[in-house]
């Protein structure tokens, strides 16, 4: 932002983030605007304002120097013994409120750091993402279609042997003899068969979403 704040002439904040004091000493107790963090050997440069976006975070408490006596390296950067790989997304989240990851960066890794630095909103975003991922990875469970066929004893073997195209034999119900011609006792059976229908991912859009309220 190109906001120019000129009250009392003590500070002019342009896009460059220069601080022009025009020879007036800064009021006692104000801290420098820029903060250096040395995360596992990689130095990040950011502002106090960015780090304090999330008031409860470790980073905010760190740069306010409240209760954390953090070691500093020879350049005065706060030393943090964490993986720098995942610190980039954390810092960028504090800068603009979005989670942006390289395609091969594991969300779990960022989640680990978000929890370490105690950045609540980011933890929630990643957990939601992971849940969504798990949902899309798991195959939509197949629907079972059942059919009940009625047949006589002598037709049974032929019918079971000619079942094709994904139909599976499930159950046979003997419904007893339904008619009687002299000695010919024909036992009737109900034959239950099932078939699995898989939803293709493309067909998903027409399906109600898993978050639909019942």
TrEMBL record:
Start and end residues of each BTB domain: 33-134
Pfam families xrefs: BTB_2 (PF02214)
GO MF annotation: an example: cullin family protein binding
Ranges that cross the membrane: none
Gene3D superfamilies, per database record: 3.30.70.2000, 6.10.140.750, Potassium Channel Kv1.1, Chain A (3.30.710.10)
Family annotation (SMART domains): BTB (SM00225)
SUPFAM superfamilies assigned: POZ domain (SSF54695)
GO biological process: positive regulation of cilium assembly; proteasome-mediated ubiquitin-dependent protein catabolic process; protein homooligomerization
Gene Ontology CC annotation, any one: Cul3-RING ubiquitin ligase complex
Protein name: KCD17 protein
UniProt xrefs under InterPro entries: BTB/POZ_dom (IPR000210), SKP1/BTB/POZ_sf (IPR011333), T1-type_BTB (IPR003131)
Lineage: superkingdom: Eukaryota
